[in-house]
Design a protein that fits this description.
3 helices, mainly alpha
């Protein structure tokens, strides 16, 4: 019998997968790797953190533009 190796994804691998999914360019091989070795909680946490970061970045840019516009 062969044992299936249960190697978890690193933080950088998880982050790159979430970033790729944000713009829709994830390869099929990486998608299969994510479903095989990744944990849903890791993807949810990184996705939420990146979403909050994106919102804060857009808010910062808008505030900066508004500051220089007046």
């Amino acid at each position: 019998m062969q044992k299936k190796e249960s190697k978890n994804l690193s933080f950088l691998q998880t982050m790159s997968s979430v970033l790729a999914s944000f713009i829709g360019v994830q390869s099929n091989a990486k998608r299969e790797r994510d479903f095989t070795h990744g944990k849903a909680s890791s993807f949810i946490l990184v996705g939420l953190l990146l979403t909050v970061g994106f919102i804060l970045a857009v808010l910062g840019v808008v505030m900066l533009v508004m500051h220089f516009a007046t």
